[in-house]
Write a structure and sequence with these properties.
By secondary structure, the chain is an alpha+beta fold. Helices cover about 25% and strands about 35% of the residues. The protein contains three helices and nine strands; from the N terminus they run αββαββββββαβ. The longest helix is centred in the first third of the chain and has 24 residues.
Amino acid sequence: MRFFIATLFFVSPLLFFSTVQAQGTSTAQPLLSTIKLTVGSHTVIAEVAQTPEQRERGLMHRFTLPNGHGMLFVFERPQPLSFWMKNTPAPLSIAFIDERGTILNIRDMTPNDDKTLHRSQGNALYALEVRKGWFDEQGIKAGASVRGLPPAAKQ
């Protein structure tokens, strides 16, 4: 019995501190609600980031993104958009999409690059991030259609 109590006394703080450390180091956004988008003839399951806080955090601190999954950033109005990869270790591609659901341009982004801005070529209402290279692999280019988009974010 004394061994059990001594072990519990010794192990419990270690479990507590390792749990706190693991929680403290992960600042990734919890999974957001998802929607099913059709990009060209392909399906993407996208988390929807529509509040300023959700859009600011985005996919930061996530190391992987499953194939066919992504994050859709929804803005209040069409506007020039720019994204960077600060604190984002997963390699991503981004498509900027106008209010009609047409892809304006697509950019591949380098993990953790906090200096390069990736800009929309025109006014975009949406941006869709997926695993780097996904658009190329599916043959999706600027001018392709995206269906299933939600309405503009509320102000």
